[in-house]
């Protein structure tokens, strides 16, 4: 489809496009410091000094973690060098983390390309101030921001040069723990197509202008205003959020987030690197850092095995067995066996989009049914031999309650195909109760290399078996069958974005018995209690535009299963939906690319 001209940022324009419509040094040993919170029982103590470890904790962060302080010369030149390399390297092998020590930096414009993370090293975003910008734009893709994936900004205070910072991103590009002393523009230069995105634990003093962004989720933050909406804008726990008004304008607003716990982050305490583990919050609203020191636990880097690309899975598992956490420095890690996390409170934290590739059909990572595991900040890329699963949280049959100290899966992204042929039957399986999935993009690739209906076959995106699981910011796209299957009781999802697989060859290929197509989000018939807010599914069956999808959402018709603010969209009339949820909701119509909506179900 040709690019549609957009001469001005029309705040109410309904845009008919979507991306594929267009084709450091080690710290000294120390016990965990507590910041406003007593140490949880699951926090791992340092091993006794009388028990030498076979593998050391701490260490150099490697060549692809670039650390700046205010006295560093040539900062802008280095930022520009990394950007030139990564700007259009959508399926390249480069991985970078750009870290800024606390202090003030003047006149910088950090443009971020693929697999690039930028972060401050203070406890508060305001500890690291950039008088300048952290920019994502889409010049590399002719002003189309719908493929600006896999990049992040975290823990910085920005005073934008023009008064407004540009962050024109798509999926897998979190904006966390940021303080923008001005406005935030989520659209590319020229207001071209955009399809993001995610903000959490951030404060934007001015107004957020999404303009061409089709959907967005903002959690536990503060905004000075919000300019417009296209299809699906969702807020939970956001001070200054627009009032509930779906579908016109399409704002879904929850006053608080039921349960949240922010992502772990690396910071400096003097010259010592530590990882901060924020505490769990209930009924959260606003940032964790706005009224002083955040609450949580601080762990020295000496309690982490600092992994480098080339390390074996056996070594990673040996480190875990010794009681170390894992810090995955930027790069690509091939695994010939699963990373097995068995200890309560274990942290697996990636920097700069560290990427795990399971070889020979293994699962990349598994956890035991234990409290408080934190998985954050890495990408799993399926290998060419089919894996039955790529990520498993808890074993089959897991039943222990973790309500006081749940496992969190945050900015953990999964990709099947795109960088090369990959296959997986089910990408992510959540067996442990009370797990929080906080921002994920699980993507069967629709472009790149190794892409085809059978070439990167992946039947299912996410399967939730555990009870009381909460998803905040769920992006799952293009699977051959169901994108999300939910079997656990009392599950909740706040914001869901989906596209059905573009490349289905014909109606028969997606026929689900007597049903036309597999729903994007399927709640099992055995479930009696479930709730979702702000859920959207789109279709673009460009191989066979005559394909009909019966509905975007399927669930048992029972009072305990509730949905709020649902929509389905046919992009340019390439395929159609008959209903929104079950037999409810009007069909999509023709080539209009106008959502069909359901405000409340049942």
What would a concise description of this structure say?
With 602 residues, this protein is mostly beta strands.
Defining traits:
3% helix, mainly beta, 2 helices, 602 residues, 12-stranded mixed sheet, 9-stranded parallel sheet
Describe the protein in words.
- The protein is mostly beta strands and 602 residues long.
- Helix content is 3%, strand content 40%.
- It is built from 2 helices and 47 strands.
- Strand 24 (304-307), helix 2 and strand 25 form a beta-alpha-beta unit.
- The two termini are 37 Å apart.
- The model is unreliable at 1-50 (pLDDT under 50).
Helix content: under 10%
Query: What structural category characterises the helix and strand content?
Result: mainly beta
Number of strands: 47
pLDDT averaged over residues:
92
- Globular, elongated, flat, extended or rod-shaped: what is the shape? globular
Beta-strand percentage range: 35-45%
For the termini, the CA-CA separation is: 37 Å
Mind summarizing the main beta sheet?
A: 12 strands, mixed
| SS element count, helices | 2
Residue windows where pLDDT falls under 50 for at least 5 positions: 1-50
Radius of gyration: 22 Å
Write the layout of secondary structure elements.
Layout: E1 33-35, E2 65-68, H1 75-86, E3 96-100, E4 103-111, E5 116-120, E6 128-135, E7 151-154, E8 157-158, E9 164-166, E10 175-176, E11 179-180, E12 183-185, E13 198-200, E14 203-209, E15 215-219, E16 222-226, E17 232-236, E18 251-254, E19 257-261, E20 265-269, E21 272-278, E22 280-284, E23 296-300, E24 304-307, H2 313-321, E25 325-328, E26 332-335, E27 339-341, E28 347-358, E29 365-367, E30 374-381, E31 387-393, E32 408-416, E33 424-430, E34 436-444, E35 460-464, E36 470-477, E37 484-486, E38 491-499, E39 511-512, E40 515-516, E41 521-523, E42 530-539, E43 548-549, E44 553-554, E45 561-570, E46 576-577, E47 596-601
Parallel strand pairs: 2-3, 3-5, 4-6, 5-7, 6-8, 7-10, 8-11, 9-12, 10-13, 11-14, 12-14, 13-15, 14-16, 15-17, 17-18, 24-25, 25-28, 26-28, 27-29, 28-30, 29-31, 30-32, 31-33, 32-34, 33-35, 34-36, 35-37, 36-38, 37-41, 38-42, 41-44, 42-45, 43-46
Antiparallel strand pairs: 1-23, 19-22, 20-21, 21-23, 39-40, 45-47
